[in-house]
Amino acid sequence: MLRILLLHNFYQQPGGEDAVFRAERDLLRAQGHPVETLEFHNQQIGSGFWGKLKAGLLGFYNPGSARRLREALEDFRPDIIHIHNLFPVASPAVLWAARRAGVPVVMTLHNYRLICPGALLYTGGQLYEKSVHQLFPWDAVRRRLYRNSALQTAAVAAITGVHKLLGTWQTGVARYLVLTEFARRRFLDSSLGLQHSQVVYKPNFISDPGAPQSNSQRAGHLLFVGRLSPEKGLHTLLAAAAMHALPLVVVGDGPLRGEVEACVATTPSVHYHGPADAAAVAAAMRHCRALVMPSECVEGMPMVVLEAFATGTPVLASRRGGPGEMVQPGVNGLLFEPGDTEGLAQAAHALLTDEVLAARLGAAGRASYEALYMPAINYAWLLAIYETVVAEARGEAPAATVPILHGAYAAQSRLIPAEDHLHKV
């Protein structure tokens, strides 16, 4: 069995990357693999100017992180390292340490940090791709894409830019795992200069929650779950709900909480339930008519969409990023253009007034989950990538194959024939 070291840098605020890191750790251990983790935490970044300055400088190369990785390699002797995030504390130093030790690395790209300091390819309510082909994205600095700070944006841009010049991203990672075909195209056609074979698609997964709720047991409202922030399309959603009296339940917290509460005060059909734990979200998902994802940024693969599919819940999503690929319009959900209030309202009305349509789309969503996002399928996918990378590092001919999809998540409501969904990685 392959020995696997998982490395992750936790942000100060928990997020979906953390959940994926833990889920893959548990999945690999359940399959019998010796798995160790090496964790870094942004809480150790000092406060104030000097603390941020030190963190910024160490973001280029943190010798303490490199030392920790060398010690882990000596103690555990893994066959492969899988990184989920290395910014900023772990730093690219871990890639250099792994390379010197001769241990191959795969890295999941949960966002677009390597080609855009803001990580979301989004600003001012619009898709933003000016940074993608630039070694140092001056426009992103001018726009203060990272934490609304020109200085911090410049620091992120400098870190990624320096390591582009050094070839770190090209030579330090054997395979980058991306969550969407959109992401694969963007990273390949970018300033990173990656090889075609370096970037492969591998989706997230969730555990099976069991048989979906029948449609007759569901309430007739839409559900939003997520961070209450502009890039999530909250303004569009609240405007549509207010203008068309859409029955809507909002779950989450964030900077737009006040606007959500103001909408609730003037729109009787809208209800705010605040933040919720995983069990409460799962219960809410099983009882709503549809999940709505109006994101205007380029999402990766939101776990709430996987949860919706697994519970047989149709998804209304904007035609952008991961949800825009995962949702097949008229098959497992409906799509509308980002920022299109009327388009969102029309799609919502179609599902709220047609129980047969909602049931059909929900059933197809469950089929999508069974075809692509179950743990067993994901394990086979991940193992094929690991085995290929390890074989290459040892100078052996890779024999593993990994499933791919042709086009934008082609035919999710059925399994792609075996002869069509395998390729060398």
Automatic annotation (TrEMBL):
One of its GO terms (molecular function) is glycosyltransferase activity. Its EC number is 2.4.-.-. Residues 52-150 form the Glycosyltransferase subfamily 4-like N-terminal domain. SUPFAM superfamilies: UDP-Glycosyltransferase/glycogen phosphorylase. Keywords: Glycosyltransferase, Transferase. Gene3D superfamilies: Glycogen Phosphorylase B (3.40.50.2000). The keyword Metal-binding does not apply. It is an enzyme of class 2 (transferase). Pfam families: Glyco_trans_1_4, Glyco_trans_4_4. This is Glycosyltransferase. It comes from Hymenobacter canadensis.
